[in-house]
From TrEMBL:
SUPFAM superfamilies given in the database record: DNase I-like
All residue ranges annotated as the Endonuclease/exonuclease/phosphatase domain in the record: 7-223
Taxonomic superkingdom: Eukaryota
Protein name: Endonuclease/exonuclease/phosphatase domain-containing protein
Cellular component annotations (GO), alphabetically ordered: endoplasmic reticulum; membrane
Length: 233
């Protein structure tokens, strides 16, 4: 069976979050062997870094949303033609900045892309209430989205053992004066809107540092899906 390989990544403008050095070559070296069919990208701007990134991953079809000049810009790169892209921006102000949403279909003859709507977003990094307002305004359910990808800055409680949760989430956030751990967004997506967490479905036993996608030891990046054709992924 032909697989369809997709991923999501926050590239932080191709700067390593730890030292702010350009890391585009490192990212390409990690992602290229995966032979991806589609990648959703956050914190991207329309420049040579973006075009070189897509070129080296052999993803010729690209779309950057209306936030292409914004630090929080998002984009999609695909092996297959991008059809009818739709861009949306939050209509309200947030301390964490404007946020964006892209949805599109894909052309081509791969069975996975038929009658599918793909979407990418990047939600607020400061406040769960703003994240909830943003995702509700973007309304992936209202847009009939089948695959929702992106850095959602959301937490899932089942990702963490009790000890890890207390030490690496509760205590770290208290010391840093950040928001307390919240799970409302992940609950909304998976319980109320019936999206399924692709990573947890494939890796149900993994927890703690094994699931981390951020430098703070938490998982905040997701691929959520509603589809009967998941076995093509």
């Amino acid at each position: 069976m032909t697989r369809f390989r997709l991923a999501t990544i926050n590239v932080h403008s191709f700067n390593n979050p730890s030292d702010y050095e350009n890391n585009i070559e490192e990212l390409i070296s990690i992602l290229k062997p995966l032979d991806l069919d589609l990648i959703a990208v956050q914190e991207i701007q329309k420049n040579n870094h973006w075009s070189n990134f897509c070129k080296h991953l052999s993803l010729p079809f690209t779309h950057i949303g209306s936030g292409g000049g914004n630090y929080y810009g998002i984009g999609i790169a695909s092996r297959y033609p991008i059809i009818s892209p739709y861009d949306q921006q939050t209509s309200f102000a947030s301390v964490g900045g404007n946020r964006f949403f892209i949805k599109c279909c894909l052309g081509g003859d791969h069975p996975f892309v038929k009658d599918r709507i793909f979407a990418v977003t990047h939600l607020d990094h400061l406040n769960e209430n703003d994240r909830l307002k943003q995702i509700k305004e973007f309304s992936p359910v209202g847009h009939n989205v089948n695959i929702l990808m992106g850095d959602m800055n959301a937490l899932t409680r089942d990702d963490y053992s009790d000890d890890y949760y207390q030490k690496n989430l509760v205590q770290v956030r208290e010391k840093s004066n950040w928001e307390t751990p919240c799970f409302d967004l992940s609950w909304l997506l998976t319980t109320r809107w019936a999206f399924q967490d692709a990573f947890k479905q494939i890796n149900p036993q993994l927890k703690d540092e094994s699931v981390a996608t951020s430098r703070y030891g938490t998982r905040i990046d997701y691929i959520q899906w509603v589809s009967k054709l998941f076995n093509h992924v």
